[in-house]
Amino acid sequence: MSYQQYVPYTPDESRYDGRMPYRRCGKSGLKLPSISLGLWHNFGDITPFGVQQGILRAAFDCGITHFDLANNYGPPYGEAERNFGEHMKRDWRPFRDELVISTKAGYDMWKGPYGNDGSRKYLIASIDQSLKRMNLEYVDIFYHHRPDDSTPIEETMGALYDIVKSGKALYAGISNYNPEQTKKAFSCLKDMGMHMLIHQPNYSMFNRSIERGLTDVCRKEGVGIMAFGPLAGGKLTGRYLNGIPADSRAGHDPRFLRPSDINEKLLDTVKKLNAIAEARGQSLAQLALVWALRLPEVTSVLIGASRAEQVRENAIALENTNLTDEELAEIDAVLAER
Ligand SMILES: NC(=O)c1ccc[n+]([C@@H]2O[C@H](COP(=O)([O-])OP(=O)(O)OC[C@H]3O[C@@H](n4cnc5c(N)ncnc54)[C@H](OP(=O)(O)O)[C@@H]3O)[C@@H](O)[C@H]2O)c1
Predict the structure, then answer these.
(1) Cβ-Cβ contacts under 8 Å for 33 (sequence gap 6 or more)
(2) What class does CATH assign to 22-262+283-322?
(3) Average pLDDT in the 177-185 region?
(4) How far is the CA of 230 from the centre of ligand 1 (A)?
C-alpha cells in the first residue's frame, strides 16, 4: 500500500447535531449510531489509501462513530486491520474515545490447526494480532465471528470472557449464531457474570431469517443487533440498474458478489423496490436502510461503502425513517414474488 502525503483532518463540528440517532445496544450502557461502517471490502490492498481515508472521514463527519473490522478482512487477510492501523495513527488517535471499534475471529485466518474456528488458542492469539495490526490498546467489541459446534461453548465464551477481563476488549459479541446457539452462548457468558452485548447477523430485505426467532431471543436477553449487509452487498441499491459498473463490487471484486448474481430476476425485484423508494423521495439504498432499522431489536445497520459519497447518501436516509403500513405492505408483496 502506498501512502499519499498527509492532509490533516478536522472533523465536522456539527457531527453530533442530532442527524445521527444513537440507539441503545440491548440492555447495556452503550449507544451505537443507527448506521455503522464496516471495513470488509474497500480497505484491503486493492483500494487506494486516500479513498479509504475519505470513506472513514465522511462517516465520522456524519456521526458514524462505529467502525467494524475482522482479523481476515482484506485482501489479503489482515490488510484491512493493517490499513486501519495506519488510519488510526494519522487521523483517529485524538478521537479514540469518540469511537467504537470492533473486530472478530472465527473464520480461517492463518495456516495450521490454530488459525480458525472457536478455540481459546485461536481467539486469544487473534485478538493480540489484531491489536498490533490496528495500533490499538483495546477494541470496544470483540466478536466470535461464527458458531463452532465442534468446540465446547464454554471454551469459546470463556475466551471472550477472559479477553474482556484482560482489558483487550470492552464488550463481547457473537456473529452468525442461530437462535439456539445464541441462547447457549448468552447463558454461558451470563453464568460467568458477563452480559453478551451484541449479535451481528445478516439482515436485509433479501435475507429476513432473523425475523424467525433470533430477534425474539435478542429482545428477551437484552442483546443488541448489528444488522450487517443491509444493502445486500450493493444489490439493494441503484448500482446495477444500468448494467455492472467496472468499479462496483460485482465488477471489480467479485469474491462474494458474482456478475452472474446480477440477473434479470434480481433486476426485476430491484426495479420494483426502486419505484417504492422514489415515491418516498429516497434512493433504494436509503429505503433499504430505513426498512432494516424499523425493527426495534436492530441497534444499527452495518453498511459498506466504496466511496465517501455513498456514506453521505446513506446517512441522509435518517431524515425520513417513517414507513407507512401501505409502503411496508408493498415491499412485502414485491419480496414475496421473488
Ligand atoms: N459478521 C459477518 O459474518 C459479516 C459478513 C459480511 C459483512 N459483515 C460486516 O458488514 C459490513 C457491510 O457489509 P457489506 O459491505 O456487504 O454491506 P452492504 O451495505 O450490504 O453493501 C455495501 C456495498 O453497497 C454499495 N453501496 C453502499 N451504499 C451505496 C449507495 N448509496 N448507492 C449505491 N451503492 C451503494 C457499495 O457497493 P460498490 O462497492 O459496488 O460501490 C458497497 O460496497 C462489512 O464491512 C462487515 O463489517 C459482517
Answers:
(1) 20, 21, 22, 23, 63, 64, 65, 66, 300
(2) alpha beta
(3) 98
(4) 7
